[in-house]
Amino acid sequence: MSDLTLVIGNKAYSSWSLRPWLALKQAGLPFREILVPLRQPDTKERVLAHSPSGKVPCLLHGNRTIWDSLAICEYVAELDPAAGLWPDDAHARAVARSVSAEMHAGFAGLRGNMPMDLKADHPGEGRTPESEADIARVIALWTETRRRFGQNGPFLFGRFTIADAMFAPVVTRFTTYDVTVDETVRAYMDTVLALPAMRDWIAAAKAEEWVIAP
Question: Does the pTM exceed 0.70?
């Protein structure tokens, strides 16, 4: 499976790119990266050379093209079932898919007002009624999921799953914007941030030359 190539945007800002990148890393699948800087005059043209949607991320696998973060994560899970990117239990797996889909489709207030930024700290910024409601929902979701399904490990469903990949950018947002959380949520955030792959992504993000104003 060494012919996998993931097309991504800036690591400092592209939350959608982080999700499948982290899933691939946690699955242990080798892949190449093509990084296309965002918000440049030629960004759209360069992305369209790989992705029919004109957006990142996009996974290239031989003659196959898979776009959209969640679709790529699903594809990776099917490529390597032994990686366990979904829970084994049917109920837990259904809930993991539900929370992943909720992250994929929702939380517009959080996305719009508190975008991912790994090059700077913005404590207290971006707080609106909409983003505060999203923060409360994320905290409740993490807390409840850990309580119900996290007995066998430190991630949302015990071991690392796609659900954790989908929420990894939110972990960075809570850090960047200094969101107050309790011990349970802090422990989960620390677990995600301690992943070697997350450390590598964040280090690369901080080293990038591009700066995009919020």
Answer: yes
Q: Which whole-number Å values give the CA distances from 151 to 59, 82, 148, 180, in the listed order?
A: 33, 21, 8, 24
Q: Is residue 210 part of a domain?
A: no
Q: What is the pLDDT of residue 67?
A: 97
Total domains in the fold of the chain? 2
Closest-CA residue to 106 (of 141, 62, 76, 143): 141
The upper half-sphere exposure of residue 169, i.e. CA atoms within 13 Å in the direction of its Cβ, equals 25
Q: Which domain does 190 fall in, by range?
A: 90-198
- Rounded to an integer, what distance in angstroms lies between the CA atom of residue 13 and that of residue 169? 9
